[in-house]
Each structure stands twice: as C-alpha cells, then as structure tokens.
Design a protein that fits this description.
The longest helix has about 50 residues, at about 240-290. This protein has 23 helices and no strands. Mean pLDDT is about 75; it is low at about 1-10, about 30-50, about 75-85, about 565-585 and about 655-658. It has helices spanning about 5-35, 55-80, 90-115, 120-125, 135-160, 165-190, 195-200, 205-235, 240-290, 295-300, 320-335, 340-345, 350-385, 400-410, 415-450, 455-480, 490-510, 520-545, 560-570, 585, 590-595, 600-630, 635-655. It is mainly α and about 650 residues long.
Length: about 650
C-alpha cells in the first residue's frame, strides 16, 4: 500500500511543535521555580545553585514531559515507516467531489433566485405554499440530522455503546404528539411565524421575547453545528478549522440568501441523498475490512457495547431508557412542535393532511440515519478494538475518530473519502440554510413588519436576504467561543436542549393552561431560559476542564499498537482514556452540573410551565382583588344582587332535580 508521506510529515511536524512547547514550558517553569537566572562566574561558566527537593522534583517532571513528547515523535516516525493504516490526505478526485457539492448547492440557489421566485416575500419565505411532500420531508430530515449526528452519533456508540438508538423511540412519540396537538393549531390560525400564536394567546411582548430567545439559541446552535465538519475537513486535508468554517458559511449564506426556502428545500434533498449514500458505502467497506458482521457483533458484545436495557434511575447517568425516551421526547418536541425551522417547513404545505404525511415521512428518514450512524460506531470499534487511536494519541479529539476511520477504510479509493466528507458538509449546509431562512422570517414578521407595515414586497425580500447574510456572519464569529467543546453531540444537545425547553414551555403553557396570562408566560420563559443557559454553559465548562466525566465510557485497548508500546517502553500509560467509575472529585461537583444533558429540555420546560402557571394564578388573584377594591359602590351593590338572584335560581333548579 502506498504511504502518503505528506500526511505523516504533518503529524511528525505537529509533534515536534509539541516538543517545542514543552521545552518552552520547561524553561518558564525553571525560571518561575528558581526565581532568577543561574549566576555566572567571571569566566562565563555557570555557578552551581542549590536546589530544594521540590525544585528537583519539578525539574524531573518537566524532563519526563519532554521524554513523553519525544516518544510520540518516535511513535509517529515508526508508524510512517511501517503502518499501512495511517490516514491519507485528499486526492484531487476527493477535492473535485467536495467542490462539486458546494458548487451544486450554489447553483440551486442561483436557479431559484433567477427563475424559481416571483420576487414576493411569501414566495421567498414560504415557497408559495406549493412545495411537494417528499422534498419537504427530506429537507426536514436533513435539517434534523445535521453534521452533528453524522459525526457525533457514531462516536457516541464507539465510546459508550448502543443505548443512543433509543432516540428513535422518542422521535416516534414526539411526532405523534406534534402532528395531533401543535401542528393543527398553527394551521387553523393561518399564521406564518410560529411565534404569532404567542401574540394571539398572550400579547406582542411575549411574542417578541420568544423571538429574541429563538434568535439567540440559533446563533449558538449554528456555531456548534459548523465546527464539527470543519474538524473533519481538517483531519483529511490539513485546512485550518476557521478557513473551512468560513467556506461553509460563505456557501450556505450565499444560496440561502438569494434562493429562499425553495433553494433550501431542494438543496437539502440533494444533500440528504448524499448523506445516506456516503454512510452506506462506509458501512459496506468497513464490514468487509473486519471480516463480516460476525466480528463486528462479537467484538462489541464482548466489551458490553451492545446495551439496550439500562434502566438506571440516576439522572446523572447520561444514557438510560428513561433519559433517552422521556428526555428525548421533549427534546424532539421542542424541534418538531414549536421550532420555527420545522414549523416553517410544514406551513409551506398546501393542506394539513400533506403536512402530516410529510412529518411521518421525515420520521422514517431520521430513524434510518440514527440507526445507520449507530452501525458505523459498531464497525469502527470492531476495527480498532485492539488499537484505539484516541488512547494511542493518534488523534486529539473524540470527534476526529469518524474522519480518521473514513480515511483509514476508504483512503485507497480516490473519491470515496471526498464523497463522505461532502456528505458531512451537506448535513451542516442543510441545517445552516434552514436556520438562516427561519431566522430571516422571524426577524421580518416579528420585528420589521410591525414597524413598517406598508413595506413593499420587493423591499421586504431584500431586507430578508440582508438579515440572512448578517446572521451568517454573526454565527461565524461565535465559532471562536465553541472551539473548546468536549464532544460535538453532547454540546449540541446540551445547548439546544437547554434553551429550547423555555420556548416549548411557553407554548405548552398557552395551550394547556387556560388561566395563563402574559405576565406568567414572560416570567416563566425568561427564568427558564436564564437558568438553563447558566446550566448548559457551566456543565460544558466542567466537562471541558475534566471535572465532569462520562461514567458510561467503555474500555479500550492499545495492546496491538506495537509502535506505540515500543516507543513508550515502561512509561506508565493507561490504555483506558475513559473511566467507568465516577471519581471522588466528580462526586463533589454540584449534581446539576452532572445531570444528563437529555434532561435539560424537560427541566427548562417544567420551569417555564410550572412557574408560568403559578405566577398567572397569583397575578389573576391580585387583579381580581384590585378590581373589587376599586369597584364603585353602585356597581358592587348591583353585582351582589345579581349573585344572590343567581344563587336562588340554582337552588330552585337543584331542588326540582332532586
């Protein structure tokens, strides 16, 4: 097998840079420890300086760190000379396929901007309510999945086992609830923005508060979604993460801004087909390389990765039947029932029946992708069951395992790695374009039209395009803040679930609590949003700093990594980078920071719902008392007489019935 020298040289160069950093650290440590530069004699020779026991210990530690980095270079150098499984960089065929993906997306946007649009805002944002069922279903599925699932779900199964696939059950339950409870309300009201319901049920203030929270949520969500495929592209091309994120946002913002919802739906459809195709090709080749389905099942079963009935009631356990079904149900509900990105898709359908068909068709596609991604995770572990690249420090982040596996399995077939990475980018493009279009609609309908009600259609369309462009730039700037997240799937579900709970709560409050009023809705929504933002950020900081660990991470092995073992010799390197038991330090962490991210949406929704209902009861009671106190004597006397007459009539009717 031919070895890609350039890739391996880049890895060695990276390790050399790490040695350089350790060398700098060593010098700075010595400087800070000794407090001064070693004195020199008149002849220029350095004079001896007495060192304490702690100073000598620090020096030994720094030397040990230096030796570890040097051993890494030795490992990679040996791997460059002996390993056939080292990943390669893209070939020109891969670059061509990847570029074609971006080009096709842009051309679809140009087509709909040139011939597919009438120039009206309704056509730009709602497609004239003439979109076909299947493209809308596939577009929604592509937006639901995103690159987060394509990269994060296989990694989740690789690290923690198959419990993740229970999300398909919660998806079925949530779509059933959304299609029979929430969606018919939006259709009967004939609204464009989902938040218009909040104005009808409460008032304009509640509607605009929900719109602001939606925009903030999507701003953070898009930056996380964009960073994942950029890591993948960097793994296989060497392109800097910020450069690839810039390319992603530039292409997506371009075709979304000029083509509108039609461009979004049709590009999503094309991108969804690419996602499915790339995953299936990867599974087929991966299973073939490990010797069939038998080794895949056996190796995963022997390490307890085939796990489907974890019924632990501890809320800090990340994945259990309860957290995945109950917590997953409310997470999916926040997406399918009240999120503008989803509601907009169904409102472009001409009838409610077609919207429901599109919703259930989307379910089949989403569950299929989740299951296929789970299979990818099992196949990955069956290949690396005795030489985990993360433990062996071949890769730096858990989310790099999928692109590493892609280049390892498909690297000898020019074009196939490019196809898979194009599929990952397609997932990111579909999500970004859907959110950009939804945010543009929210800003227009909830903030601009109320101020300029007589705005012309063409002017409104230009404003919406400008909003899409500005929001794309803002989302790109947020990438700098999320670059340190631990794993992309955890971070996405944590932040999105935490912030979505407050919005789901206020809609649920309006539908199911008849006494709810605007004050209760606003207080409940803002309190839930603020608390869950704190919880989501604090939990991610704790995970990134290593204070909180995943207690479900399975065991790993590096016993068949000869270059790694020989290079490190007797250095005490643990083969398990994850720990199956929770350390004492983690037990001391505040329990809310350790709670499973799947419960975030439930917590946020309950805060908004319960607090909103209680505040509404209290304010309604205070308003009743205030009106009674301020009521004129004549009106109060009349109401007393009426109440007595009504009571006498009721007693008469009751007596006749008895």
């Amino acid at each position: 097998m031919n070895i890609d020298i350039e890739t391996r040289f880049l890895k060695v160069w990276t390790m050399c840079g790490e040695i350089k950093e350790f060398y700098k650290w060593n010098n700075s440590k010595r400087s800070s420890t000794f407090g001064r530069i070693r004195p020199r004699s008149a002849s220029g020779k350095s004079m001896a300086v007495n060192k304490s026991r702690s100073e000598r210990k620090d020096l030994r530690i720094s030397k040990r760190r230096f030796l570890v980095a040097a051993a890494k270079v030795s490992t990679f150098a040996k791997a460059m000379a002996t390993s056939d499984s080292w990943p390669k960089l893209f070939t020109w065929v891969d670059y061509l396929l990847f570029a074609l993906t971006l080009l096709v997306s842009s051309l679809v946007g140009i087509y709909h901007a040139w011939r597919g649009s009438s120039g009206s805002t309704s056509d730009y944002l709602m497609g004239g309510k003439k979109m076909p069922i299947l493209p809308v279903a596939l577009s929604l599925a592509a937006s639901s999945i995103s690159a987060t699932t394509l990269l994060g779900a296989p990694t989740e199964v690789y690290l923690n086992g198959t419990m993740y696939v229970w999300l398909t059950v919660s998806a079925v339950l949530s779509i059933a609830a959304a299609t029979h409870v929430y969606l018919p309300i939006f259709y009967r009201l004939k609204i464009v923005s989902a938040n218009q319901y909040l104005e009808i049920r409460f008032n304009l203030v509640v509607r605009r508060l929900a719109s602001v929270l939606f925009v903030v949520k999507q701003l953070l969500y898009l930056s996380i979604v964009a960073i994942g495929p950029s890591w993948a592209l960097r793994q296989v091309t060497g392109i800097h993460t910020l450069a690839s994120v810039g390319i992603l946002f530039a292409v997506c913002t371009f075709y979304t801004a000029i083509g509108g919802i039609k461009a979004v739906v049709w590009t999503d459809t094309i991108q969804f087909v690419m996602m499915y195709g790339s995953i299936i090709i990867l599974i087929i080749k991966g299973v073939y390389d490990v010797g069939g389905w038998g080794p895949v099942w056996e190796r995963n079963y022997n390490t307890s990765r085939i796990e489907l009935l974890n019924i632990d009631i501890d809320p800090t356990t990340p994945h259990t039947v309860w957290s995945l079904v109950i917590g997953g149900f409310f997470y999916w509900m926040s997406w399918y029932a009240v999120d503008q990105t989803t509601v907009q898709r169904f409102l472009v359908m001409k009838t409610l029946r077609k919207a429901k068909i599109s919703m259930w068709s989307n379910l089949v596609a989403v569950c299929g992708i989740i299951l296929l991604c789970g299979v990818v995770g099992l196949v990955m572990y069956s290949k690396y069951f005795d030489c985990d690249p993360l433990t062996a420090k071949v890769i730096d982040k858990a989310d790099q395992i999928v692109p590493f596996f892609v280049m390892d399995v498909l690297g000898d077939f020019p074009g196939l790695p490019g196809l898979f990475v194009a599929g990952i980018f397609s997932g990111a493009l579909s999500t970004l374009s859907s959110v950009l279009n939804a945010v543009a609609l929210i800003v227009l309908e909830d903030f601009i039209r109320p101020v300029f009600p007589n705005m012309r259609e063409r002017t409104a369309t230009r404003v919406v395009k400008g909003v899409s462009f500005v929001f794309g730039v803002l989302s790109f700037s947020m990438v700098f803040l999320v670059a340190q997240i631990k794993t992309i799937l955890d971070a996405t579900l944590s932040f999105d679930g935490a912030m979505a709970g407050s919005i789901l709560g206020v809609f649920t409050l309006g539908i199911f609590v008849p006494w709810a009023n605007p004050i209760g809705a606003a207080v409940g929504m803002l309190t839930a949003f603020g608390f869950m933002m704190w919880l989501g950020l604090s939990a991610q900081i704790a995970k990134s700093s290593g204070v909180v660990h995943n207690s479900q991470t399975k065991s790993f092995s590096i016993e068949n990594c000869p270059a790694y073992n020989e290079s490190f010799g007797s250095l005490p390197i643990s083969p398990n980078w994850g720990n199956s038991s929770i350390p004492d330090e983690q037990q001391a962490v505040f329990i809310l920071l350790r709670i499973s991210y799947l419960w975030y949406t439930v917590i946020g929704m309950l805060i908004a719902l319960v607090l909103g209902a209680l505040v509404s009861l209290l304010t309604n009671a205070l308003n009743t008392v205030s009106r009674s106190i301020d009521m004129p004597a004549e009106q109060l006397r009349d109401r007393t007489v009426i109440r007595k007459l009504s009571t006498a009539d009721e007693n008469r009717v009751t007596g006749s019935l008895l």
